[in-house]
Design goal:
Blueprint (H helix, E strand, L loop, with lengths): L8 H11 L4 E2 L2 H6 L16 E3 L4 H14 L3 E4 L16 E4 L6 E5 L4 E5 L4 H10 L2 E2 L12 H7 L6 H4 L6 E7 L5 E5 L11 H5 L8 E8 L1 E2 L3 E9 L2 H13 L6 E5 L1 H10 L12 E9 L2 H18 L3 E4 L2 H8 L1 H4 L7 E7 L5 H12 L6 E6 L4 E7 L5 H21 L15 H7 L2 H14 L14
Parallel strand pairs: 2-4, 3-4
Antiparallel strand pairs: 1-2, 5-6, 6-10, 7-11, 8-9, 8-10, 12-14, 12-15, 13-14, 13-17, 16-18, 17-18
Helix pairs in contact: 1-3, 8-10, 8-13, 13-14
């Protein structure tokens, strides 16, 4: 366990000399603003001692060196959209904001890549690519507020992963500030490389524990000119899940296959004031996006997908408009209508295990005193389980949630799954990672962290405890 020093006036003064007084915040309102990310449980909140807003990698490197000098923990915060407490300063110390690193540096249309600072919103990355008739394929639900550096830090997934993969599949290179305060470039815009360790991929998904991502080089794709969003509505969840392998085997190559159970359909329609949602009382939604470079191909694949869904038991197949996608993107936010405190888990299993996993969860949750909502990226095996506290006491909620989670994780690992598909571990799941990760794998992680960050300065308490 690391022993940190308290933040002192001397430390604050050195930060102000480095960054300018305007960008070093110690007032109560600012500290209170950054005591949490998307976490709603007040027991998980932690006040930082100081909030800093650097302008570039050089200033970040200076902050890291000062934190090492004074043994002060440092937590990096992107858009604050995480839900596993990854941006909460569990140990106090410094919270470092990335919002001033907000420039797109280069968009290379011939090389099909973009260079951007880590604080650029994902939505702005997508828009800049689209303006040049290109596609940045990373598309998490929080794209309008999350930052691209945070996407890399958590290896965010999103709705297009079934076709294009997760964030790590969209990255050529990163620039990081190491835990020692050095600025290092990792990777290059190459189609292939077999030159030493793949260091950029080690940093991606490390949740700010191995380095602070300051700049990214992202892969771009040609933007398919033809697209359709389809909504297949089912009554049986197993029938809904069953369309996935059939769509894949048919060669349809969908961009997205998303799942919403009926409680999600009803709650999101109320939250968005969309009472005309189709089959609102009993429908299970499967949203399918197909994109092509040929209009005839789109028509053919649309007909194929419709036939497959109907044969699998769909009670209706419609064209989905933006309201349907808005429902899918607001599944998490809509549960605020039910309970102030909820938890969203994102277990991932092999795609062929998804049906059994959902059946197991539905059966298991019947023993527990909280309602269940399930939405999922069913095309890539990533399942979101939403549970609400309702009128349970803190003690009851903690106990029942822990027991339920233990059962679900045990089942998932027994069937080739893992704790998280895209949200990360943060501090919320750190003890479960230590509980379920094979000992040899966990020990390698610990050795890497100790070698890279011997003072345990960067984001301590996240992923696992030292």
């Amino acid at each position: 366990m690391s022993n940190y020093n308290s933040v002192t006036p001397e430390f604050i003064d050195e930060l102000k000399t480095l960054l300018g007084e305007k960008y070093v915040k110690t007032d109560a309102d600012t500290l209170d603003r950054y005591k949490t990310d998307e976490e709603a449980d007040e027991r998980c909140f932690h006040l930082p001692d100081v909030v800093v807003i650097p302008a570039n990698a050089e200033e970040i490197a200076g902050v890291v060196k000062l934190c090492n000098k004074y043994l002060i923990p440092l937590t990096v915060r992107g858009g604050g959209t995480g839900i596993v407490d990854g941006a909460i300063a569990d140990k106090g110390g410094v919270v470092l904001l990335m919002e001033r690193l907000n420039k797109i540096i280069e968009l290379n249309k011939e090389g099909l890549y973009m260079v951007a600072q880590a604080g650029v919103r994902t939505l702005d990355i997508q828009a800049a690519a689209k303006a040049e008739n290109l596609l940045y394929a990373g598309d998490p639900s929080s794209s309008d507020s999350c930052q691209i550096g945070g996407n890399l830090a958590t290896n965010a997934g999103g709705i297009k992963a079934v076709r294009y993969g997760v964030t790590r599949n969209q990255v050529y290179a990163v620039q990081i500030v190491t835990p020692y305060g050095d600025i290092v470039d990792l990777g290059s815009p190459l189609k292939k490389c077999s030159t030493g360790y793949c260091m950029e991929q080690l940093v991606i998904g490390s949740e700010g524990t191995l380095g602070i991502i300051t700049q990214v080089t992202l892969k771009l794709q040609p933007l398919p000119p033809y697209k359709i969003d389809m909504l297949a509505i089912f009554h049986d969840p197993m029938a809904a899940i069953g369309v996935v392998p059939q769509l894949v085997k048919a060669g349809i190559d969908p961009t997205s296959i998303e799942y919403m159970d009926n409680p999600n359909v009803r709650t999101t329609s109320e939250y968005l004031e969309f009472p005309g949602a189709p089959h609102i009382e009993d429908g299970i939604y499967v949203i399918i996006t197909i994109e092509t470079f040929n209009e005839d191909e789109l028509d053919m694949k649309m007909e194929q997908a419709s036939d497959i869904c109907e044969a699998a038991g769909a009670v209706d197949v419609l064209e989905a408009d933006e309201r349907i996608w808005s429902m899918r993107r607001n599944c998490l936010e809509s549960v605020s209508l039910i309970s102030k405190v909820c938890t969203t888990d994102d277990v991932v299993v092999p795609v062929d295990e998804m049906s059994d996993m959902i059946q197991y969860i539905i059966k298991t949750v019947a023993k527990y005193p909280f309602p269940l909502r399930i939405n999922a990226h069913i095309g890539d095996g990533n399942l979101h389980i939403v549970l609400c506290k309702l009128d349970l006491s803190d003690e009851e909620w903690e106990s029942e949630l822990s027991r339920f989670t233990e059962e679900v994780y045990t089942y998932a690992y027994a069937h080739g799954g893992r704790l998280s598909g895209e949200h990360g571990i943060g501090s919320k799941k750190a003890h479960f990672l230590e509980r379920f990760t094979p000992s040899g794998e966990l020990e390698l992680m610990r050795k890497i962290k100790k070698a890279w960050d011997p003072n345990n300065i960067l984001n301590p308490g996240k992923v696992f405890n030292l």
